[in-house]
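Here is one chain, start to finish.
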Amino acid sequence: MDYEQLLDRAFEQLPNLAEEKVDFKIPQADSLIQGNKTLLRNISQIADTARRGKDEIAKYLTKELAAPVTVEGNTLTILTKVPASTLNEKIHRYFELYIICKECHKPDTHVQVVDRGYTTIVCEACGAKYTVKNS
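Its structure:
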């Protein structure tokens, strides 16, 4: 075989990365405003999708919304009125900062080290490491 034929054969055997399907979707907030409180009824689903703890997400939302937050079972209670659109923006931002890899854009990350006010995020898919400020 000559070079051209070997090259064609090699390209045929490569996976087509452009056609790789990504079925990951950031969950939408299932929220309900009751009086002066907002209930996020699907915090467990969000935490499972993020592969992070509910308390970590609650801590982030506390800082972002400047309101006290409590977690009881599958419900996160925010002690102020928060529109669903704002809650969805904050959850989407959390995923962008702390879940989705900045290199390969996959959600397969985990927290490795917390040191001096910074957290190291490690991507299990591509091996990328980067630091982010603690939530």
